[in-house]
């Protein structure tokens, strides 16, 4: 796996790799919209795979929990939300990596 020096570099590489536009990236990352187009879904698949919260076939609950716990710090309410989301989304799988990304987003939004 390629390691990136910054989030911006990862974002740009995923945009290039998946054929996503700046607008696609902003729609799903900045505006937190559910991915609609194939490019948006595949862009998120790339982001999730590089963040290791997806292996391209399933949601990787353990990595999501690890990252979420670090980001939560001492905020018990946020930590509880992260754990609930991880439990709810555990088992999300799809052979299509792009559709998997859309299903992960949908599950996390429902949490």
TrEMBL record:
Extract one GO molecular function annotation from the record: odorant binding
Composition bias, Basic and acidic residues: 1-16
Does the record bear Nucleotide-binding in its keywords?
no
Keyword set, alphabetical order: Secreted
Q: Which domain of life is it from?
A: Eukaryota
Q: Which family does it belong to?
A: Belongs to the PBP/GOBP family.
Q: What is this protein called?
A: Odorant-binding protein 56e
Q: Which organism is it from?
A: Culex quinquefasciatus
